[in-house]
Amino acid sequence: MNVILASDHGGTHLRKEVARLLEEMDVNVTDSGCDCEGSVDYSDYSLPAAERVANGEFDKGIFICGTGIGMSISANKVKGIRAALVHDVFTAKVTREHNDSNILCMGERVIGTGLALEIVKTWFFTEFEGGRHARRVQKIADYENK
Ligand code: RB5
Q1: What is the phi-psi region of residue 17: left when phi exceeds 0, alpha when psi lies from -120 to 50, beta otherwise?
Q2: Which residues are catalytic?
Q3: 61: three-class secondary structure by DSSP
Q4: Is the pTM of this model over 0.90?
Q5: Torsion, CA 12, CA 18, CA 22, CA 25, rounded to 10
Q6: Pairing outcome for strands 2-7 and 28-31
Q7: Shortest-distance atom of ligand 1 to CA 71
């Protein structure tokens, strides 16, 4: 399992905590930044990293900004991306089971580190259920390919 991380300045602290957790879990992690002191634009980090998930170079992505909203809106513009903005453990589980989300987005200014790391673990270890959910996800792909 290869995972790419991305954040803007609003998500740098949490991104480093997530990297540490995934390394402890023996996951192959690539941290695509930002390496920033000052303010940057979230789309400069989300879009290239989302493309690397969409083209199969990475299995999953975890993207963080202040709210997670900019990261999720921009990542979802990339064909093949199903980015889920998640701030609780229940939706972390269900977005994997039902949506087969391939990018997890969180807001560092929204939740604490402890909850965020529980969300990462839950999202990471929950499998897609397929079945009727596969049909629904396929309809999104069909729309993208119109
Ligand atoms: C940066 O100030 C902030 O706007 C950004 O991290 C994010 O929350 C955008 O959605």
Answers
A1: alpha
A2: 65, 98
A3: strand
A4: yes
A5: 150
A6: parallel
A7: 10
Taking the domains of the chain in order of start, what are their residue ranges?
A: 2-144
From residue 46, give the alpha-carbon distance in Å to each of 58, 110, 128, 135: 14, 19, 23, 27
Q: Measured between alpha carbons, how far is 78 from 74 in angstroms, rounded to an integer?
A: 8
Which residues line ligand 1 at a C-beta cut-off of 6 Å?
A: 8, 10, 42, 65-67, 69-70
Mean of pLDDT values over 16-35: 97
Q: Whose CA is nearest to atom 5 of ligand 1?
A: 66
Q: What is the pLDDT of the chain when averaged over all its residues? A: 98
Helix axes 12-24, 113-125, angle to 10 degrees: 50
- Average the pLDDT over 117-139 and give the result: 98
CATH (residue range 2-144): 3.40.1400.10
